[in-house]
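Hi R.,

Here's the chain you asked about this morning:
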Amino acid sequence: AVLAQALAQAHSAVSRASPRGAARAPCCNAMDGRPTVGTRVRVKESGRVGVILNDAKDNWPYSIQYANGEVAQHIAKVANPKFFDEREVEAVGAEAKDRPVLGARVRIQATGRVGVIVQDDMGRAPYKIQYADGELARHAGANPDFFKEGDVEAVG
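And here is the predicted structure, written out as tokens:
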């Protein structure tokens, strides 16, 4: 419900046309340039994309929700795991995609085979992928059990 409300606010702002007739997404406060409630942002720590649901305008102002309804949390241990400061997020446009996460179905681009992410260590090559028959996906390379984000694409 909270995500639906934030998305409705974002949609309302997008549907208001600019003087040239192009739609504008909510981005930043005109007074100080900070992202605001309804802004799509990428959480730098995880690479995930979500919408700002709350802005407390303090040291840890933002709570963020991903499209799947999950509330963003820090990977590293911090005092306020569900809140992010301005340096930890960046505003992104509508074309920005969320990164595949644990449990997501993905297609390995080199082979076209589809599997499920069974491990995501958030590193340079974060994904271990398992096919429906139980076989783990492998490739030629220095770390054949793990795939980079650019090696896979999410599938429905």
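One quick note: The chain is about 10% helix and 25% strand.

Cheers,
M.
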